Structure formats: structure tokens, C-alpha cells
Amino acid sequence: MAFWRKMLFPLALVFILGLLLASIKINALLLGQGWGLLALLIIIIALALMYWGFEQGRVSSREVAVIAMLGTIAAAGRVPFAGLPNIQPTTFMVIISGFVFGPRAGFMVGSTAGLVSNFFLGQGPWTPWQMFAWGLAGTSAGVLKIFFPRAGNKVMMVFSFLWGYLFGWIMNLWTWTGFIHPLTWQSFVATYAASFWLDTIHALGNAAFYLFFGSSFVKILQRFRRRLEVRLLPTDS
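== ECF transporter S component ==
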């Protein structure tokens, strides 16, 4: 039962991704160029349901405070690097948060970081996509911890590197649906090819951040997590 509780958020996100893919077919049949609006609506509803599910779950006030703090730190880490081409420590911080605290916390840290950082960098229709993409990064890191609890630095570096591309690919969907006409497979491939070097920089930056700061950051968050744990001691009868 504990395993399935941990997997609830990841499974919900898989279902949402399925809806997004299904909406492509719906777009082809009914909506023409309006697929971007439908996809954005799905993501907004999904984010609202995820936050509602988190609020309804068994979460202590201390855990909420830590998640809010981590989301704010991840958001603040993005702002100083905004002038550099796609170097974002936010992704690295979100991944480690999810790995240490689990899929649900990883999603909340990632989505919160996207929302808070855009109060400084600019809100727009891209914000829900960023919240969703970083939330997925945090959730997937939590799933990695469930199945590979002893994942070492090399595994985490590769994982962080790959998410540089995955984050970019998710955001490319927003670019494709929001700015490209017509929505064809040719324009889809061209959009992804154009972002290849920026995604590569993001991936290399993630790996570098983990190489230099990953172990220390993990130890700090593990110490916080131990303080949040509640153990029931046996009582004498």
C-alpha cells in the first residue's frame, strides 16, 4: 500500500501525458490550429488537481514549509542565470528535491519554482508548461529513488543531463503550438532541431551543477528529511 501511495502522483502524471497525446488526435479531427489552447487547458486543470491532491493528502505543516522553502530556493537560483543561454540550476535543485523527498514533493517543488521564478522573469502562457515540466522532473527523480534507492553520483549526473533535453522537449511543445503555423510533422521536427544546442547547454549545465554541488546538496536535504520523520516508540503495557 505504501508503494502505491508513493506512485499515485507519477501515475496521475502519466495519465495526463496520455491526455496530451490524445488531444493531438482530437486537434486533427476537430480543432485545427487550436491544439495549443486545448493542451494548455489540460495542463492548467492538471496542475490544479495536483495541488488539490497535495493539499488533501497527509502532509505535515513542517513538510509544507520545507517544500515551499525548496521551491523558493530553486526559483531564486534561476533568476541570476536568466541572462545566460539556458543554464538553469532550477532543474538540478528540483531533481535532488524529488530524489530525497519523493515524487509528490518533487512535483510540488518543481511546479512552485516555475511559478515563483516567473514573478521576477515574467508570467505568461509558458508558465503552466514550465510548472508542469519541472514538476515532471521532480516526480521522475522521486520514482528513480523508489526503484533505485542506491543511485550514485554517476547515475544522478546522467539523469540530470537527460532532463536538460526532456525539459526542452516539453517546452518545445508550447513553442510549436503557440508560434508555429501550420502544425505539421515537418514544423514539429524543425522546432525541435532548432532548440538542440540550447537543450544541450541545459543538459551540460545540469550535469555540471550536480558534479560540483550534488553530493553536498543531497546531504543537506537528507538531514532536513530526517528531522521531518516521525517515529512511533513502543509503549510499555
